[in-house]
Design a protein that fits this description.
The protein is mainly alpha-helical. The chain contains five helices and two strands. It has a two-stranded parallel sheet with strand order 1-2.
Length: 114
């Protein structure tokens, strides 16, 4: 697991904030302009999601979103959530938004007291 990215997510959670993929990529020397780097950040976020799940915590990776039009997490967030048994897999906009916003709230609440 990438400790630098993990620590940045914890910092965001404690600050009750969100960040774009393009904000965190440079911290771990990746560029969202590079397809291989985009795939790598997805892998790193997946590792963190699995780790947090094993610790019984909400999805810390909910705090990373696309910059621009939608400001929502990528498809990988929902896929791993489904694999981990947290998300029912229904890809309707309202269902996805509700699940994601609940995860953000749970992450913020968890880490606010940590």
């Amino acid at each position: 697991m990438n400790e630098t990215l993990y620590n940045e997510l914890i910092r965001l959670a404690q600050a009750q904030d969100l960040a774009a993929y393009s904000d965190v990529a440079p911290i771990i020397e990746l560029s969202m302009d590079n397809e291989e780097d985009r795939n790598r950040i997805a892998e790193l976020l997946r590792e963190i999601a699995i780790h947090e799940n094993s610790e019984g915590r909400p999805m810390l990776t909910a705090l990373i979103v696309h910059r621009g039009n939608d400001n929502k997490p990528g498809e990988g967030f929902f896929s791993i959530a489904q694999e981990l048994g947290h998300f029912d897999g229904i890809r309707g906009q309202i269902n996805m938004l509700t699940f994601w916003s609940n995860q953000v709230t749970q992450v913020h609440n968890h880490w606010a007291s940590a």
